[in-house]
Structure of O-acyltransferase:
Amino acid sequence: MFRGLVFSALLVTSAFAGSVLYLLPCAVVLLPLGAVDTFRSCVQLCRWWWFSFAGACVEYVGGTRYELTGDDVPRSFGDDRCVLVVSNHHCRLDWLFLWPVACRHGRAGALHVMLKDSLKHVPLFGWAMQAFGFSFLGRVDRASDVATIRERLRAAQTAGPAYALLFPEGTDLSPSNLKKARAYGLTLDPPRRWNHVLVPKGAGLAAAIEALGDDLDAIYDVTIRYDTTSGERPDEKAMCLRGVFPRKVRVHVAREPRDKLPRAMRVGDPAATKLWLLEKWALKEAAVESRGEELKPKVSDPDGTGKSFYHFVLGSGVAYATAKGLWASGGLRAAAAASCVAWSGLALFGGLDDVEMAIAKKKRAEK
């Protein structure tokens, strides 16, 4: 239980420091001046710090170990600038457990996530994700979601390297979702009778490929599995309230260079993209079924840069200084309260991400 409380306190306090005390003040100072590029540089710094710290918390507070197999991305493909990371969606916390992988790939500051729009206005975390320019998808109007992916990824691409994470299944492997996916899988030709993955969708990945165009270096095909004490899927309540973390996260990365993708897929064809995904997901099903026996070779030095402890100490120091400052300074508490009110008010304009995009479009039109 203590471990879960420490983990939650560190993430909440650091998210408060990042979103309330750093990101919004940067936006208030820079965006009215039209300094969009400078603001995005500030955002990239915060993104690098926070995802590196959150990933380090999973390992140092949660005690979770990582085993990486497949392509050794940092050593062999470190020049990849724009990549799409597609993964099976085993549980609601897959994105959290993939952050340490992004850190090992040296791309914590370039991480871009596609997620439900219901998370956009969640205090602290949702506010930060707005500033990070993530793609919020309603999952009701497909055309609108595809347009959002194109717009946000193009903006991320112009700001620097892009490491975009998406889950083509669209939802996690809950019993009800698995039941629906099995029923749908039986209607396909040939039928898919899967027990460990859901049937992937192609539209989102196709839009992302189209958005990045020739700048796309590769797709990282990721298969994630967990070793847990109970044998059940990781759960946020178990982690945060009881301190129950996975013992080990097993991640297999297969790099698919853009020029090796099917021609129709390279131009963003949804049908071709879905066929490609179905092939890859059949391999994931077999790999998870066999407990990853064929997922080789193991990546040497899975700790990557070896800087996780540094990020943990740095982030913990920021969290401690934030808590101490709020306790001791009435002025800081007043400023933080004003920042929270401003974040809430931004919802009237769609959120900070929409405000930033509007300013960027106006600036481009004036050139």
User: Anything to note?
Assistant: The radius of gyration is 20 Å. DSSP finds 14 helices and seven strands in the chain. The first helix runs from residue 2 to 30.
